[in-house]
Amino acid sequence: MNRYSIIFLFVVLLAACSGQSGKNVTENKEAKAMLQGIWIDAESGDVSFRVDGDTIFYADSTSMPAYFRILGDSLVLGSGTSYAVAKQSPHLFWFVNANGDVVKLEKSDDPVDATEFTHDTPSVLSYTYQVKTDSVVMYNGNRYHWYIAINPTKYKVITRTYNDDGIEVENVYYDNIMHVSVFQGSRQLYSSDFRKQQYANQVPAQFLEEAILANMEFTHIDADGLHFAATLCQPDASSCYQVESLITPHGQMTMKLIEY
Q1: What is the pLDDT of residues 164-208, one digit of tens each?
Q2: pTM of the model
Q3: Dihedral sign, CA of 93, 95, 101, 102?
Q4: Which of 59, 126, 154, 159 minimizes the number of CB atoms within 10 Å of its CB?
């Protein structure tokens, strides 16, 4: 057997061993069975979540239910985020959260705690400021009337954040469409809708996926035209992008990033 055949055989065996080791990671059904029910914080007594089958339901009215598995000694959410299980028994569940803290939960037998889960489906949140605004501005003897309308849509944006227990949760928001119109006297210079997808060249794709087109406002007028600032934010986070839309006296529109 030449050395190339030996190398090939080694690679095949390595791949087979790797595939076999992946199969050894099976779901811990016993641990999953013990996790069924309502769990409360051992120190505060606050309701944390309810487990029914392979789904975690949260007590707040905005967090989406999460699919989960118990793999080895880890609680693994459908998103792939995992938490090491520090201790588990039929009435205790301790795990290490995203901050490295051990969260200690106890199973609840109090029927009152079940009332925390009376909402059928999580609420979808709106993220808007003003619905409509307009004004008249003058420049070089010309009168311009601008108009902005913020229109909430049914387009859902899923954002990921962490709850009080340090568990990743998903919230759902409705995105917005911004309409901007500009008139010079009675002549319409510009009229168009703005959607967050139009900012793909100014905002990173990963950020844009979880962002809301939150606001549009007029900032100023100069020789170049009328300047409008669109704000794209990730709800429940402090990060936002501002992108300027310039509408020229000839009705042309250009964009540029002005703030992050």
Answers
A1: 899 999 888 889 999 999 999 999 999 999 999 999 999 999 999
A2: 0.69
A3: positive
A4: 154
